[in-house]
Amino acid sequence: MGEAAIGKSSMRAVIFKNTMPDLTRRLTTTNYYETEKYRFFDGANALSVVDCGGQIDFFESYLSDDGQQMLFAHVSALIYVFEAKKLDSTGRPLADSLQYFCRCLEALQKHSPNAPVFVLIQKMDLVDNDRRQSTFDSWVTALREVAEDATWSAYGTSIYEDTLYR
Description:
Blueprint: H1 8-16, E1 33-40, E2 45-52, H2 56-62, H3 65-72, E3 78-83, H4 95-111, E4 117-122, H5 132-146, E5 153-156
Parallel strand pairs: 3-4, 4-5
Antiparallel strand pairs: 1-2
């Protein structure tokens, strides 16, 4: 989950479909959500991945009572994605971005309380090398402030680097 145009579908294409990162620009916008099953280990196991469109209208529907029951029940793990450079004029993450994250955490806690949460600060390759750590730290600090009771792990990622796989 995450806001629109931050690379969620691109990450899925690179990881699960072996798409070259440069070719992900051809992907279209995810409307509402898409579910795909990926089989591995000779087809004996499957992983269902739900790619949720990040437009505000979609978020509101996901967070409605019916949407929560449909998307947040029986979740094994939540991966929430932020764009590294989506900061306000003071260098802090946008309040609306943080609010949607908190609302998703609340829905997850209600319907799948044991699911781990992974936060990906995506597009770190667009941040100057000398500012990457401080940008990542700004995100982690802001997330801790708004989601202090939740347990989550954060990682800086890029589809152009091996950070998606480490």
